[in-house]
Amino acid sequence: DRLSAPNMALPAQLKPIQHHLRTAQEHDKRDPVVAYYCRLFAMQTGMKLDSKTPECRKFLVKLMDQLESMKKELSDNDSISQEVVGNAHIENYALKMFIYADNEDRGGRFHKNMIKSFYTASLLLDVLSVFGELSEENIQHRKYARWKATYIHNCLKNGETPQAGPIAMDEDGEEKASASCPTPHLKPIYESGPSGPPTTSFNNIHIPPGAHAPANTPAELPPPTGGVQLSPDDFTKAQKYCKYAGSALQYEDVGTAIQNLQKALKLLTTGKE
Asked: Residue ranges of the Vta1 C-terminal domain (predicted)?
């Protein structure tokens, strides 16, 4: 399978990165930033998997060359030159795919495209790890998206109707559910009754209840000190945070919007991130 480096087949030892490389290839024209970070993740993961055997070394060197030339081509793109912007770009893109697939799922519309969207969202959440540790929320989204993709795929393959909408998973739910359609261990996720919000984060994907807003609300920010000197870089960063908040609101993701607006406020009032 020729997935990434030109004219080179993927060595068997590097099989775990094949889907990330395929996603990169699919986005070369559609969204080069996504393609770049998918390859960067694949390269970093590939180095850990096997950088010793000749065929893997050769493949990874080709991949590095490809990343270098992409970096040059995209050098004027903020998402490549500034990690904080790249991080937001990939996260927003993954979230957009996740929300599309989740809406289709909740509406009981099962098809190849939504399965692929769930799966691609999970791959892009893998890719986010190039920027640092994943948040607990993203780890949960990734697990849920990957599990849903497998579960719906297997149901359709077996001619069964998947259960629509959020389903609670056991710790090892992924393995159990990958076998077939709903089994007794899959219980509906809404268990807390009308009195309180459901406990699991999957229900908060659209508009999280206020209780889930981060604790450091603007009221708790230190008051601006008279002598805060903001650099041009600070203004750029603050603008970026506001921009992310705007895109998060397009997807009705209030949590991310609040988080980014708080970062902007903190930066503008204290001069520190």
From this structure: 232-269
Mean pLDDT of 72-100: 94
pLDDT above 90 for 186: no
User: CA quadruple 149, 155, 159, 161: dihedral positive or negative?
Assistant: negative
| CA-CA-CA-CA dihedral for 130, 132, 136, 140, to nearest 10 | 0
Helix (H) or strand (E) holding 60: helix 54-73
Q: Considering the domain 232-270, what is its CATH architecture?
A: Up-down Bundle (1.20)
Quote the tokens at residue 226. Answer: 């008279």
When pLDDT is averaged across residues 127-156 and rounded to a whole number, the result is: 95
Degrees to nearest 5, angle at CA 194 with 190 and 108:
40
Candidates 117, 121, 124; CA nearest to 152 is 117
Would you state the structure tokens that stand for residue 47, as one six-digit string? 């180095």
Burial 53-71 (b: 16+ CB within 10 A, else e): eeebeebbebbbebbeebe
Q: pLDDT by residue (tens digit) across 109-130?
A: 999 999 999 999 999 999 999 9
Burial class (CB in 10 A: 0-12, 13-18, 19+), 129: middle
Alpha helices in 74-177 (DSSP H): 78-81, 83-106, 112-127, 136-157, 173-177
Domain map (residue ranges) of the chain: 12-158, 232-270
Question: What is the DSSP secondary-structure string of 223-242?
Answer: PPPTT----HHHHHHHHHHH
Check whether domain 12-158 has CATH 1.10.287.70, yes or no: no
